[in-house]
Amino acid sequence: MPLPKPQTESCLQLYLLDGSSYIYRAYYGMRALATTAGLPTNAVYGFTRMLLHLIQKNRPDYLAVVFDRPRAESFRKELYSDYKANRDDIPDDLARQIPYIKQIVQALNIPALEAPGFEADDLIATLARRFAATELEVTVVTGDKDLMQIVDERITLLDTMKGKRCGPQQVVERFGVMPALVPDVLGLAGDSSDNIPGVPGIGEKTAAELVSRFGSLEKVLEWKSLVNGKKRRENLHTFADQARLSKILATVSYNVELEICLDELKKKTPNGAELIPLLHELELEALAVAFTPPPAGLVELYSDGSCSSSGPGGYGVLLRYGEHEKELSGSVSTSTSQRMELTAAIRGLEALKNRSTVRVFSDSQYLVRGMNEWLRGWIRTGRLDTPDGVANQDLWKQLATLADRHQIDWEWVRGHAGHPFNERCDRLAKQAAEAAGQEAAPADADEPTPKEENNLLPNRPARQVPFRDDSEFDSDADGQLLLC
Q1: Are residues 224 and 106 in the same domain?
Q2: Within a domain: residue 33?
Q3: Is position 406 annotated as part of the catalytic site?
Q4: Residues 148 and 239 in one domain
Q5: Sign of the CA dihedral 252, 28, 420, 345?
Q6: Cα 130 from Cα 422, distance rounded (Å)
Q7: Is 478 a catalytic residue?
Q8: Which candidate in 122, 137, 191, 341 is catalytic?
Q9: Residue 470 is a catalytic residue
Q10: What phi-psi label fits residue 46: left (phi over 0), alpha (psi between -120 and 50 degrees) or beta?
């Protein structure tokens, strides 16, 4: 199956997010979340988390969130009073959250766009066509099939819930026609989600066949005498005006007047002074952590490993310094979970150019207890240099060498769920392991193969911190085998 045209790294990327669609997905995707005072926050949390993940994964150069105006303001409502009349009113607990969602978007320094009389689809279509003409690659983040009509070689749709990207070929597979003819199909078949009537007795499959055969809705109506089925021909005659109206309702507008230039959509750094207090007010502490930069002079290193009982293993690393972040990931042909946890920390520390003050976070007690409790005993008793003195000796020796280069604190974090950085590392590690499992392992794949080059952080002065006290402990009771 042909795939959408891949986006090239050299081309600038504009992402247009269907904010209203994201809000509803967040609202129904997570329920029963509220502050201690009873303010519902499930939609706020889900929306912000999905938006954060989208930005981290895709790194857009330009970004905007587009919202719908109240339904009654749409020009389509003026044309057809029953347009979207089948939809329920917004739930009260969701309505209370929307102002907070818009505050968060503002604090993230992301433009929030809407226009009186038009729906989000119209703004998205206008902006997508305008900026695709300047040779930007435009991605519309939505699950709305109606927007398939705007797809072309430079405009694709991304459904983040399904992990699918839609280009022209995917539109043909879905509707049976090229993108520009999607409104013609919907004009004949109608659209129950928007209460667009169409022509009775004509479904999407038949509509697609007719539009493909005759070239447009108008041509179908003109040559209806050639359409098979007496009842179908009668309906095309009786409901011709309704079909034409339905096509108008289903067609997005490319002519929304928006006085906004591309530079205003450039991805900016969040306004932490505004964002962090808001997240604390909403008691979304995990998200507050995600947007809080490390203390001055400190490198935060998050690491995680992933491995099945047999087969490839993967590692994921996130390095944070000031406002800067860098992800690393890679894989080995065969490994164990413990080796991948150690490998992840090694690859992260190897990426530091100069001596640094580092705080390493991992959910692996094996790694954290090893570095905090066991390593000095192994060194003191010679077990690190004795053949087979400890399990995974080769990796522990690498960590011992790296620990001498930097001032490091090792901290354990609980599991994956809820911790934004640990979750990212977990995803990176699993993706690397899965990708390695889909490829034939090279003959010399005993060492990790990074996806990114090492030495990725810029040179920076290191803050000197006295070495921790080397307290005594019983190295024979380190418990390592219990964690292997």
Answers
A1: yes
A2: yes
A3: no
A4: yes
A5: negative
A6: 39
A7: no
A8: 341
A9: no
A10: alpha
Find all residues with CB under 8 Å of 104, minimum gap 6, and list them: 44, 47, 48, 275, 278, 279
Residue 363 annotated to the active site: yes
Q: Would you call 122 a catalytic residue per the annotation?
A: no
Q: Per this entry, what is the length of the chain?
A: 484
pLDDT digits (tens, 9 = 90+) for 432-472: 998 888 764 443 333 333 343 333 333 333 332 222 333 33
Distance of CA 391 to the CA centre of its chain: 38
Give me the residues paired with residue 331 across strands: 314, 449
Q: Which of 363, 419, 423, 478 is catalytic?
A: 363
pTM for this model (two decimals): 0.80
- Give the per-residue SS3 of 202-226: CCHHHHHHHHHHHCCHHHHHHCHHH
Active-site option among 176, 209, 416, 434: 416
From 122, 137, 191, 304, the catalytic residue = 304
* 8, part of any domain: no
* Residue 98 main-chain phi, psi, to 5 deg: -60, -45
What pLDDT digit, counting tens, does each position of 22-78 carry?
999 999 988 889 999 999 999 999 999 999 989 988 999 999 999 998 766 789 999
**Active-site residue 152, yes or no?**
no
